[in-house]
Specification:
single chain, alpha/beta, Rossmann fold, 8-stranded mixed β-sheet, globular, binds S-adenosylmethionine
Length: about 200
């Protein structure tokens, strides 16, 4: 589900960039990715996350996708002319990824699965496109944050089948993704890395 203008103001703000830097640093400290990897970011927004991925993990090939064509345009502009990494941005649905089975070394999700109408399909798609031992870098949010008394009125999110950490962790396991030690879980958010078994 495309985000509303209030959330767009936040995710396109310098405050969010500062948080994203911390998130990527934490994820990298949890699990490094071999240089020269093929990475995919779902729901890339304006491309700041992918820029940080490239700087931190030095992939050879990087694909960024988003459902919202306006976001993809911003990402394309931000990610133009990066040396040493072949970067491609496109409009696509995280519930029906265009990538082939077992074709990607790592998938990054910065606050996207909780925006999907069917997050379980999105998670299944992540598991499908990852190679065996591929890594899933996760920043996910729970209703305690985005559906609380204030944000629940300001933001728009799907209403059915929402997940807390318990459901999300169970679904990761069900999709063959094992959450590595060191994940940071609060009532609002999960930061962690899972590996495809
Ligand atoms: C909260 S924003 C996060 C954007 C970016 N990951 C960041 O952290 O700045 C969620 C993003 O997911 C995108 N999105 C929502 N549903 C999607 C879907 N089904 N497939 C792909 N992208 C989607 C939205 O358009 C939006 O850019």
């Amino acid at each position: 589900m495309v985000i509303n203008f209030i959330e767009r103001i936040y995710v396109n703000s310098p405050v969010h960039t500062i948080d994203q830097r911390r998130v990527v640093k934490f994820l990298k400290e949890t699990k490094q990715l071999p240089a020269g990897s093929h990475v995919l970011e779902i729901g890339c927004g304006r491309g700041v996350g992918m820029r940080l991925i490239v700087e931190s993990f030095s992939p050879t090939r990087a694909e960024a996708l988003d459902l919202d064509p306006r976001m993809v345009k911003l990402a394309e502009r931000r990610l133009r002319g990066i040396e040493g990494t072949e970067v491609a941005c496109r409009v696509a649905d995280a519930e029906k990824l265009p990538q082939a089975d077992g074709s990607v070394d790592a998938v990054f999700d910065f606050g996207v699965l909780h925006h999907l109408e069917n997050w379980r399909s999105g998670l299944a798609e992540v598991a499908r496109v990852l190679k065996r031992q591929g890594l899933f870098y996760i920043e996910e949010y729970f209703p305690h944050l985005y559906a609380n008394a204030l944000l629940g009125r300001l933001l728009v999110h799907p209403k059915e089948d929402r997940f807390e950490h318990t459901e999300f962790h169970a679904a990761l396991s069900g999709a063959g993704l094992r959450l590595l030690d060191g994940a940071r879980v609060s009532s609002s958010r999960l930061l962690g890395v899972a590996v495809k078994q």
